[in-house]
Amino acid sequence: MSLSMYQASIPPLVRGLTILSAVLKKGEAHAPTLVDARLAPDMLTLVGQVQRASDTSKGCGARLAGVDAPSMDDTEKTFDDLYARIAKTVDFLQSLKREQIDGTEAKRITIKTRDNTIELAGQAYLLNFALPNFYFHVTTAYDILRHSGVPLTKLDYLGDWKSA
């Protein structure tokens, strides 16, 4: 049996967001002020990384399913705000049905950036753009916390991989 577009998108995105929430909880326990931490002056803060992970995942699900993604105002300032955003994103992703996403391998996906409009087939969009972008922001959030002294390990990032 081959891996479907739904299986390759929604469960990994939900899992990544769930792990992100768990990593944030360890960060909050270590230092509640880390929401404004960043790795470099030209990079987004922890809040910004979580917002982009949320945006990327909900945008991916919405584009593949052909529905509108929920609007979120990027007003998060606390860990509780970040948990709420992640939960709202997970709820949206879990509302998408397998039949909305399966079969979208060749569907044309259009992404508007500041400078361009990019058009990709659904599978290329998922595998070459959405998932790498999502994991970049999840990893960077992890790295900000780790760099700030939060006692995280690789197993925190991997989550419960034995039952995944």
UniProtKB/TrEMBL annotation:
InterPro entries linked to this entry: DinB/YfiT-like (IPR034660), DUF1993 (IPR018531)
Protein name as catalogued: DUF1993 domain-containing protein
UniProt lineage: Bacteria, Pseudomonadati, Pseudomonadota, Alphaproteobacteria, Hyphomicrobiales
Gene3D superfamilies assigned: dinb family like domain (1.20.120.450)
Pfam families from the UniProt entry: DUF1993
Source species: Pseudolabrys taiwanensis
